[in-house]
Design goal:
Layout: H1 14-19, E1 27-30, E2 34-38, E3 46-52, H2 59-65, H3 68-84, E4 93-95, H4 99-102, E5 111-115
Antiparallel strand pairs: 1-2, 2-3, 3-5, 4-5
The structure holds adenosine monophosphate.
Amino acid sequence: MPIDATAPYDRDNVFARILRGEIPNNTVYEDEWALAFHDIAAQAPVHILVIPKGAYVSWDDFSAKASAEEIAGFVRAVGHVAREQGLVEPGHRLLVNIGQDGGQEIAHLHVHIFGGRPLGRMISPS
Ligand code: AMP
Protein backbone atom coordinates (compact mmCIF):
# COMPACT_ATOMS: atom_id res chain seq x y z
CA MET A 1 0.00 0.00 0.00
CA PRO A 2 1.45 3.40 -0.95
CA ILE A 3 2.74 5.56 1.90
CA ASP A 4 2.00 9.15 2.84
CA ALA A 5 5.18 10.96 1.78
CA THR A 6 4.43 13.82 4.18
CA ALA A 7 4.33 11.56 7.28
CA PRO A 8 7.21 11.70 9.78
CA TYR A 9 10.05 9.24 9.22
CA ASP A 10 9.22 5.75 10.52
CA ARG A 11 12.37 4.27 12.06
CA ASP A 12 10.99 0.76 11.66
CA ASN A 13 10.53 0.84 7.88
CA VAL A 14 12.13 -2.08 6.02
CA PHE A 15 15.05 -0.05 4.63
CA ALA A 16 15.84 1.49 8.04
CA ARG A 17 16.01 -2.07 9.35
CA ILE A 18 18.29 -3.09 6.46
CA LEU A 19 20.59 -0.14 7.29
CA ARG A 20 20.71 -1.30 10.94
CA GLY A 21 21.57 -4.84 9.79
CA GLU A 22 18.33 -6.29 11.20
CA ILE A 23 17.18 -7.59 7.80
CA PRO A 24 19.58 -9.21 5.30
CA ASN A 25 20.17 -7.70 1.88
CA ASN A 26 22.13 -8.51 -1.24
CA THR A 27 24.55 -5.55 -1.22
CA VAL A 28 26.20 -4.41 -4.44
CA TYR A 29 27.80 -1.19 -3.12
CA GLU A 30 28.16 0.75 0.11
CA ASP A 31 29.89 3.98 1.08
CA GLU A 32 29.53 6.73 3.70
CA TRP A 33 26.38 8.09 2.04
CA ALA A 34 24.53 5.21 0.42
CA LEU A 35 23.76 1.51 0.36
CA ALA A 36 22.84 -0.27 -2.88
CA PHE A 37 21.31 -3.75 -2.98
CA HIS A 38 19.31 -5.98 -5.29
CA ASP A 39 15.54 -5.53 -5.22
CA ILE A 40 13.90 -8.56 -3.65
CA ALA A 41 11.32 -8.74 -6.50
CA ALA A 42 13.34 -7.72 -9.56
CA GLN A 43 11.31 -6.26 -12.44
CA ALA A 44 14.22 -6.27 -14.94
CA PRO A 45 17.41 -8.34 -15.37
CA VAL A 46 19.14 -5.64 -13.28
CA HIS A 47 17.01 -4.05 -10.56
CA ILE A 48 19.00 -2.37 -7.83
CA LEU A 49 17.82 -0.03 -5.09
CA VAL A 50 20.08 2.76 -3.83
CA ILE A 51 19.18 4.32 -0.48
CA PRO A 52 20.74 7.18 1.44
CA LYS A 53 22.19 6.38 4.88
CA GLY A 54 20.24 9.29 6.40
CA ALA A 55 16.63 9.10 7.59
CA TYR A 56 14.64 10.59 4.69
CA VAL A 57 11.09 9.54 3.78
CA SER A 58 11.15 10.56 0.14
CA TRP A 59 12.91 12.51 -2.60
CA ASP A 60 10.91 15.52 -1.44
CA ASP A 61 12.12 15.16 2.16
CA PHE A 62 15.71 14.51 1.02
CA SER A 63 15.90 17.41 -1.44
CA ALA A 64 14.48 19.80 1.18
CA LYS A 65 16.45 18.69 4.26
CA ALA A 66 19.64 16.80 3.35
CA SER A 67 22.99 18.60 3.41
CA ALA A 68 24.82 19.40 0.19
CA GLU A 69 27.35 16.70 1.14
CA GLU A 70 24.64 14.07 1.62
CA ILE A 71 22.99 14.98 -1.68
CA ALA A 72 26.27 14.93 -3.59
CA GLY A 73 27.34 11.66 -1.96
CA PHE A 74 24.03 9.98 -2.72
CA VAL A 75 23.79 11.16 -6.33
CA ARG A 76 27.39 10.09 -6.96
CA ALA A 77 26.68 6.67 -5.44
CA VAL A 78 23.75 6.13 -7.84
CA GLY A 79 25.98 7.00 -10.80
CA HIS A 80 28.80 4.84 -9.48
CA VAL A 81 26.55 1.78 -9.17
CA ALA A 82 25.18 2.22 -12.70
CA ARG A 83 28.73 2.48 -14.08
CA GLU A 84 29.97 -0.46 -12.01
CA GLN A 85 27.07 -2.59 -13.29
CA GLY A 86 28.01 -1.80 -16.91
CA LEU A 87 24.75 0.02 -17.54
CA VAL A 88 26.00 3.28 -19.05
CA GLU A 89 26.73 2.12 -22.59
CA PRO A 90 23.56 0.00 -23.06
CA GLY A 91 21.51 2.50 -21.08
CA HIS A 92 19.30 2.11 -18.04
CA ARG A 93 16.49 3.81 -16.12
CA LEU A 94 16.39 5.57 -12.76
CA LEU A 95 13.03 5.72 -11.03
CA VAL A 96 11.92 7.30 -7.77
CA ASN A 97 8.37 6.73 -6.57
CA ILE A 98 7.01 9.38 -4.22
CA GLY A 99 3.90 9.04 -2.06
CA GLN A 100 0.42 7.85 -2.99
CA ASP A 101 0.21 8.68 -6.69
CA GLY A 102 3.83 7.64 -7.18
CA GLY A 103 3.10 4.24 -5.67
CA GLN A 104 5.89 4.50 -3.05
CA GLU A 105 5.57 1.55 -0.68
CA ILE A 106 8.62 1.90 1.56
CA ALA A 107 8.97 5.11 3.54
CA HIS A 108 12.74 5.55 3.10
CA LEU A 109 13.96 7.27 -0.08
CA HIS A 110 15.14 4.78 -2.68
CA VAL A 111 16.23 5.15 -6.29
CA HIS A 112 15.46 2.16 -8.50
CA ILE A 113 18.09 1.34 -11.14
CA PHE A 114 16.65 -0.80 -13.94
CA GLY A 115 18.66 -2.25 -16.80
CA GLY A 116 19.74 -5.31 -18.72
CA ARG A 117 17.12 -5.08 -21.50
CA PRO A 118 15.25 -2.42 -23.48
CA LEU A 119 12.86 -0.93 -20.96
CA GLY A 120 10.06 0.31 -23.19
CA ARG A 121 7.91 3.33 -22.57
CA MET A 122 8.24 5.40 -19.44
CA ILE A 123 4.71 4.93 -18.14
CA SER A 124 2.13 2.32 -19.13
CA PRO A 125 -1.18 3.78 -20.25
CA SER A 126 -3.73 3.46 -17.42
P1 AMP B 1 8.54 1.45 -4.13
O1 AMP B 1 7.25 0.96 -4.69
O2 AMP B 1 9.22 2.46 -5.00
O3 AMP B 1 8.42 1.91 -2.69
O4 AMP B 1 9.52 0.21 -4.18
C1 AMP B 1 9.80 -0.62 -3.08
C2 AMP B 1 10.68 -1.73 -3.59
O5 AMP B 1 11.30 -2.34 -2.49
C3 AMP B 1 9.93 -2.82 -4.36
O6 AMP B 1 10.48 -2.94 -5.67
C4 AMP B 1 10.18 -4.08 -3.51
O7 AMP B 1 10.31 -5.25 -4.29
C5 AMP B 1 11.46 -3.71 -2.79
N1 AMP B 1 11.69 -4.38 -1.50
C6 AMP B 1 10.81 -4.53 -0.48
N2 AMP B 1 11.39 -5.17 0.54
C7 AMP B 1 12.66 -5.42 0.17
C8 AMP B 1 13.78 -6.07 0.79
N3 AMP B 1 13.70 -6.57 2.02
N4 AMP B 1 14.94 -6.16 0.10
C9 AMP B 1 15.03 -5.66 -1.15
N5 AMP B 1 14.03 -5.04 -1.80
C10 AMP B 1 12.85 -4.93 -1.14
